Amino acid sequence: MNGHIKAKRLGRRSSVVEFIMVPGRIAAIALLVSLVVSVDSLAATLSVGPGAGFQYQTIQAAVNAAATGDVIEIAPGTYNERVTIAGKAVTLRGIAGPSVTTINANGLTAGAALVIGSTVPAGCLVTGLAIQGATGAGVEVTSCSPTLRDCWIQSNDNSTMSGGGGLQLSGSNATLRLEDCSFSSNQAIGRDGGALWLSASNSTVIAQGCEFVLNEATGNYGGAIYAAVSSLQLLNCDFDLNTVNPNGGDRRGGAIYIASGAAAISGCMFRSNSVHAQAVGGCGDRWGRGGAIGSTGALALNACSFFDNVAKADGGCTTALGRGGALWIGAGSLSAQDCVFARNKAVANHGTSGRDSRGGALQVEGGVDPVLVRCNFEQNIVEGTNEAGMIQVGGALCYEAGSAGTITDCLIAGSSCGLLGGG
Q1: Running DSSP on this structure, what letter comes out for residue 353?
Q2: Lowest CB count within 10 Å: 31, 294, 295, 360, which one?
Q3: Pairing of strands 211-213, 243-244
Q4: C-alpha–C-alpha distance, residues 99 and 257, integer Å
Q5: pTM exceeds cut of 0.70
Q6: For each successive 10 residues of the chain (423 residues), what is the average pLDDT?
């Protein structure tokens, strides 16, 4: 078959290839065959860095010039700017990693340091960057499906947006992936979710190999994570020293609060997280529930460890209620297998209208029937000030309000309770 091929370039994303048959050779195919060929190799690489050796000196300028599929390579340095990605799926890549490549919004107008908007199609990737200094969430994601990989989201103080010191997800129909990221020293001031605020309908969040350290919510819920999404999946993540630490009221989930939806947590470590309802800021009940996790959703735990978490309430002129040193379950469901709970503590102090601490490791309410398989509960504690009217129940476990459930092949040992039930 004789013929020839010629190619026409039609912009950056495609080419038209024409195969023209020599007339008379094959009478049945005497026509043009036009094939539109996607040419991924046409994706451009744009460079950002200080000085004339780079195409762009700011990340935002490179984003504005980029098209879907382009890679923006960012040289080491601190970029004092806020960045918005809209209408295109690009890759932002810190070429030397987050230890030396930073988006820093310190001193800029309030809002997120990085915004990934609802018009961004699938395929957006942010990798190798530190994101810090925002007076708002460090990253804002709305109704889209990006991946953050090997990023450090740190030292953001959100006092202006809905929630989330480190990252806020809102809208609907999103799939957010977090891979090998660190969230540290973020604050949600008067808000929920010190590191992550996840409130998006019909949405999934997957975090793998991430760490959450020293995040704080001074609102009501979730020292590290507040979750109201269809599915939250956490795999091999560490939660250390996160806290809900406000004035009074009902505070839940020193590391995580599951408000709704399903949460599957596997291979995760929870150490020294706390929820503390304090006796300051006027009178009113003080409830501290779930030193590591509080949940009213469907919670499934597999091969997780909980050490030295604390749920604490100081009542002052009112009631102090400390419930679930590691876990507090108020509704929904709980299954846990192959988990370890050790040295967790529920504490209630100085409530003039009552002092009530229950469930050093686990407190279950609302008629929930937990399923516990091959879990170890060791040296968990219920304690509080030894005053008239003090109630202390269940050094390790406390089920109430119609809750029952099953316990299979579990060890309960060495727990203590000042008044009722060391186990």
Answers
A1: T
A2: 31
A3: unpaired
A4: 30
A5: yes
A6: 39 37 39 36 88 95 98 98 98 98 95 97 98 97 98 96 96 98 96 97 98 96 97 98 82 95 98 82 69 97 97 71 89 98 86 70 94 97 66 79 90 74 51
